[in-house]
Every structure is written in C-alpha cells, then in structure tokens.
Specification:
The complex is a heterodimer of chains A (about 290) and B (about 200). Chain A is an alpha+beta fold and about 290 residues long. Chain A contains eight helices and nine strands. Chain A folds into two domains: about 120 residues, 2-Layer Sandwich (60s Ribosomal Protein L30, Chain: A), CATH 3.30.1330; about 120 residues, no CATH class. In chain A, about 40% of the residues lie in helices and about 25% in strands. In chain A, the strands form two sheets. In chain A, strands 2-1-3-8-9 form a five-stranded mixed β-sheet.
C-alpha cells in the first residue's frame, strides 16, 4: 500500500478536531461505572455534570474542554506500507496547523523561554510525533492525543533503587495521586511506567495514561499490579475534582520495560477525565476513523 | 447550604454572607484571566484599563474566532469554547488581585492554597469551584465577549465576558477560613496510611 500524503494531512487535521469533540466509548462507560459506585452525593453531582458536558459538546458540535493540549500523534506503520518517513511527519504537522487555523482552535503551544505562541499549535518538536511499526498487513494507523496541561503538569519520575523494591513503586504512585489532588481534573487515568531508562520510563507512563479503559498490561505481573493499584487509589477519598468522593481514577494502568540491575525507575503521568483520543486507520479499502 | 444569585459587581457584605457548601449563580460580567495575564500585571508592572472592583475573575484562556466588530461581537471576537484551567498555578496572584484591583470572587478548578484562604478572610473574598473539563457546558453560559485588554498575550488576554446564569458554582473557600480542599486534604492524608497498609507496604 502506498500512502497518500494529502490524505494523511487531512486526517491529521480531522483527528485533532475529532479528538477534542467526542470522547471514546470506553471513557463514557467508565463514567457510568464510577457514577454507579460513587457513595458521596456531591461527587455524584460532579460526575453528572461531566456526563452532561459530553452530551452538550456532541449536541453543539463543540470542544469538550477549552484545553487543546499539546498535540501528540502516534503513528504505527504496518507490513507492506510504502511511505517516506520525513514527508509523513511534515504532512502530520501541516494537518495539525490547519486544524488550529481553520477550525479555529486555541493554540496552547509556546516557546519554553520566550513564551511566544505561533498560533499554530506547533513549535520546536511539537506536535510530538511517535513512529512505531507493527506486523499488521497493509495498515497505517495514526492515533491523536491532545494532552491537557492540568494532568500533564502532574508528571513525576523517581529513580528508586532495587533495595526499595515494589514498596517504593506503590508508595510513589499513591503519593503522586495524593499530592495531585484536584489539580489533574479527576477522575483520571493514572499512567505508571516501570523500568527502562529514565526517558523510556516516562514514555511508558504516558502510553499507560492514554491506553483504552479495560485494556490490560501485557505483562502478567504488571497486570496484577495495575489491578491492585486501581482499587487502592479509589480508597484515598480525593474524588472528582478533588472535592472528595470515591471516584479518584477510572483506573491505574501500568506499562513496563526491562531495566538495569541497579535501577528501579518509576514514572507517573496522568490523564484527566476528558481522556481524549482519536484514531485514523488507512488500509487498501480506505480510511476509517475510530478511537 | 444556601443558593445565591449574584449580579456583579458585588459588595463585601454579599461575599461575607457566603459559606463553604453554598452555591452561587453569577449574572452580568465575568473577567477571564490566566498565568501570562497575571505575570505581566504583577511581575512586569502592566496595568489593565478594566475596573475589576467587586468583580469575579475566572481562570481561563478561551478558544475564540476573530470576526468583524459588531453589536454582537463588540471586541471583534466570537466565543468558541470557554472553560476553566487549574487554579493552583496562580496561587500567588490572589492577594494582589484583591489588594490592587478589589477582586472579590475567583472562579476556578482544583482549589487554591492557604495564602489565598488568608487573603479571602482578611480582604473579603471567595473561591467558587466550577467543574473543570466541562467547557462545552460553560460556553452556553456566556453570551458574548464584550471587551479585551492586554491582547498581545492572546489567548491569555484579559477577557470581559457577558454572562447569563453562570453556574451553579460551589463556594469551596470562603471568607471565614473555610476550605473544602483543606478538609479533603486532611481526610486523604489520614486514609493514605490505611491504603498503603492494605497494599502490603511496610511502614517506613
């Protein structure tokens, strides 16, 4: 399959707008589950307002949240796909710029020192573009995540040591959730990265935070830990918006990588309740949008 | 737990009447303010021509469309999506906003800290919590963008919104030292030890 770069540019634009307007079904079901389990009346009211907002956004064709985030595109290139990598990245960037200008969207991206905003949602190394490969035949997938800053500002890395063991992991995750309080717009998805090097560990935490609800860590030990931590964080009492209640997180997700004999790295990245993402899948049959 | 309809600007007495757990719906005018706006106002000596005395500010930076100025769009901006950002980053600006400009209400999400609570108590102010991440709904409470100042900071300009039935908002910090965030924080700190024990973590 030869990739049409004009179609990629159009999809990169469309994905940004779609992600900002319609929440994936797994997140909507997540709200239903949390609302059914919530014991605190105020927390139930807060969750109900969030659910109302999802409907208002769809009915008025508006953005769910004013934070257009830092745009992230995760590209997965399958087997037998012909594409020039550099041109693909340029097409995605153009699509991201066009979404911002043509919708228009608030450009939330600035230079880190001058704080200058180009009003394109683009800048040095932004949009963030990750490229990976799969064995899916004749398939190109582009996932778009507009990562909101309220949750992103609560990202943490701890280079723990082996002697601190799993206790350090559990304590660090719990303390990150405690200290974040309402700043992350809970209920959140708490993404935990374990192992690797420091940079890989943080990247894993982001992947975990943006994973579909209901999915599990492919490593059995990681899956066990995420189940245990998912139950634990909802006993902390932070609640929706940090105003108290059971619904602190939809889930804790863990992603892990092998690490050094002397290392025990732990990273936490959180996703807010407006856990937005959208996906475009190109195959020889055409382009399909989903989540 | 009473509900109040407040038309801005408000008096100190109206603010002192509010207690945590009360709810408020705002009418008339609301000012949008953000990190860069306040960095420029309080760290770089810039002033706004707006009279904020007795008013409410909301921690926001909106999505807008540039349009021709008209009766409907007096500032040359049409609102697209207006929502609320995390207040905690702007903690240190609460006191100067109140002391220098007479602001009485801060609308935000996630809460403010002890310094703001002290300023609310001393000067007569409240923090009104909105549900963060519900901007599509919030946008329906905004009639138009009436004016804009410090617009070189766009989107972090100082925005003047015309609002109708903006709320209900929750009084989460009041002028009598009450803070729902402090209450939740204390509760969470107590539960933390139990949660860690349930995870089999040995006490340090």
């Amino acid at each position: 399959m030869k990739v049409d770069l004009a179609a990629v540019e159009e999809a990169a634009k469309e994905l940004y707008i779609r992600a900002l307007k319609v929440l994936p079904p797994d997140i909507k079901s997540g709200f239903d589950r949390l609302a059914a389990q919530e014991s605190v009346p105020r927390a139930r009211d807060v969750l109900a307002t969030m659910v109302t907002n999802i409907k208002v956004a769809e009915d008025t064709d508006n953005l769910l949240c004013q934070d257009t985030g830092v745009p992230i595109y995760n590209v997965t290139i399958g087997a037998g796909v012909q594409v020039e990598g550099h041109a693909l990245k340029a097409a995605i960037r153009r699509g991201c710029e066009r979404a911002t200008r043509e919708h228009p969207l608030r450009s939330s991206v600035v230079h880190p020192l001058t704080r200058k905003n180009q009003h394109t949602s683009c800048g040095i190394h932004v949009p963030v573009i990750h490229i990976d490969f799969s064995d899916a035949p004749q398939t190109l997938e582009i996932e778009m995540v507009p990562k909101g800053s309220g949750s992103e500002n609560n990202s943490f890395l701890k280079m723990a040591i082996p002697a601190e063991g799993v206790d350090a992991i559990k304590t660090f995750v719990i303390d990150c959730v405690v200290n974040a309080g309402g700043k992350t717009c809970p209920p959140t998805i708490v993404g935990v990265g374990l192992g690797g090097t420091s940079d890989l560990c943080v990247a894993l935490a982001k992947r975990a935070a943006t994973r579909e609800l209901g999915s599990r860590c492919s490593d059995p030990e990681g899956a066990k830990l995420e189940e245990e931590l998912s139950a634990a964080v909802n006993r902390l009492g932070v609640g929706p918006q940090g105003l108290g209640g059971d619904a602190t997180a939809f889930a804790v997700h863990v992603e892990l990588a092998a690490t050094h004999i002397t290392m025990n790295p732990i990273a936490v990245n959180m996703q807010c309740h407006s856990a937005r993402r959208a996906k475009a899948t190109f195959t020889p049959a055409g382009l399909v949008y989903g989540f | 737990m009473a509900h109040y309809e407040l038309v801005t600007p408000v008096s100190e007495a109206q603010i002192r009447a509010l207690r945590v757990n009360d709810t408020v719906t705002l009418q008339a005018t609301l000012f949008g303010i953000r990190d860069a706006t306040q960095i420029h106002m309080f760290d770089r000596g810039r002033r706004t021509r707006f009279d904020l005395n007795g008013h409410a500010v909301i921690h926001t930076a909106p999505n807008v469309r540039k349009v021709e100025r008209s009766v409907e769009f007096p500032a040359g901006y049409a609102p697209i999506c207006i929502g609320t950002t995390t207040s905690d980053r702007m903690e240190r600006f609460t006191r100067p906003l109140m002391e220098q400009y007479g602001v009485r209400m801060i609308v935000g999400k996630g809460g403010l800290r002890e310094g703001s609570l002290a300023a609310f108590q001393e000067l007569g102010g409240v923090y009104l919590a909105i549900v963060g991440g519900t901007a599509a709904l919030e946008t329906t409470w905004i009639e138009r963008i009436e004016d804009v100042d410090l617009d070189d900071l766009n989107p972090e300009s100082l925005w003047q919104f015309r609002i109708r039935n903006f709320g209900p908002l929750l009084v989460a910090m009041d002028s009598h030292g009450g803070s729902l965030y402090r209450e939740v924080k204390r509760d969470v700190e107590t539960r933390r030890a139990q949660v860690l024990a349930s995870l089999g973590v040995k006490a340090a």
